[in-house]
Amino acid sequence: MKTAFYLAVINLFLFATVFAILEGVVRYRKFHSLKYTAPIFVYDPVLNYRYNPENPNSLGGFIGGPYPKNKSEGVTRIFCLGGSTSAGYGLSAKKSWPSLLQMELNDRLGVEQVDIVNGAASGYGTRHLLQIIRTIAPDYSPDYFIVYTGWNDVRDMSDPSSWVPANIKTPRDGWITRWDKWMQNNCYLYLSVLRWRVEGLIQTWENRRVGEKYKAMQAQKVDSLWREDILRIIALSDSLSITPIFVQYPYFENDQWLAKGMDYANIQRGRLRFLGELRTEKNQRVIDMTGVFKKAHQFPEQEYFLDLMHMSALG
To answer: Per residue in 303-315, pLDDT tens?
Structure first.
């Protein structure tokens, strides 16, 4: 037993030594190269996480930023709110729909009369959007909010503290998850070479610890809260004299939405009906995109989408 223990200690020491040497080499090369980039997400005390203001893809904390807070005279400013579908998941900042919308509107008007701030971030739900409207958006003096939300606020994303990007710490983390996040934030070798090999094992452990049943229960509970939050967004926007415009987003039926413990497809259909009712029953401005892509192509989900929710550059 003692021999096996000593061998294990020696092997662990040798592994740690080799790992430390390789980490030193990686850090030396990273810190002496202009290719080094800061993490895309950082902790935020209000939102739990946000885009890193120092990352070249999110300067100022926004995709496509930095954006000036002062608005030029005669310019209409639109502040976009949403999750990865608005942030431009899988695309460059210039290919995200807020950026393309700004170019299209200004081309039609012939002058730079419209200024759009992309305040969306991957994983954001309605609770994040409410906090942004309260604390961040007013500094940019927007005239309109375009609100594209509905895909999140379910399962792992059922509240702002239960889902965060992989490197952001939360009070709910188990010891394996805390170790994993510490390694991501402090060890370049682990982040760039090793983590993708163990990511599946870590996620499996976390799912067992939290429990699929709990996540499903949270999803059903938060679906009703999502609707209440939409009404709060309307009331808060009105108090700030900012006009909200909601997007009734494109949705395609697929068996993959029938997840364990809940009918994700039914949740999406219900949310789209609710967004439509905002226009018919509450006189809110709603952009109906549910049929736009279906009219353009026989198989729009293949032609215009990276998956069933994130639009491609063509989309």
So the answer is: 787 777 888 777 7
